[in-house]
Amino acid sequence: MKAAVLCGEKEIRVQNMPEPVCESHGVIIKVKLCGVCGSDLHVYKKDEGKGTIFGHEFSGDIVEVGSGVQGITTDMRVTAVGFSPCGKCYWCQQGKSHRCSDMALLGYQLPGAMAEYVHVPFAALGRNVFPLPEELTYEDGASVEPLSISYFSVNRAQPKENEIVAVIGLGVIGLYSIQVLKAMGVTKIFASGRRPARLAAAKACGADLVIDAAKEDAAKIIMEATGNLGVNTVIECAGKQETFDQSVAITRGGGKIMLVGVYEEPIKWDPITVLSKNLTLIGCLGGNFPAAIELLKSGKAKTKDIITHIFSLDEAAEAFRAQLQDPRAIKVMIKP
Ligand SMILES: [Zn+2]
Ligand SMILES: [Zn+2]
Question: Which of 125, 180, 287, 315 gives 311 a disulfide partner, CB atoms 3.0 to 4.6 angstroms apart?
Answer without folding.
Answer: 315
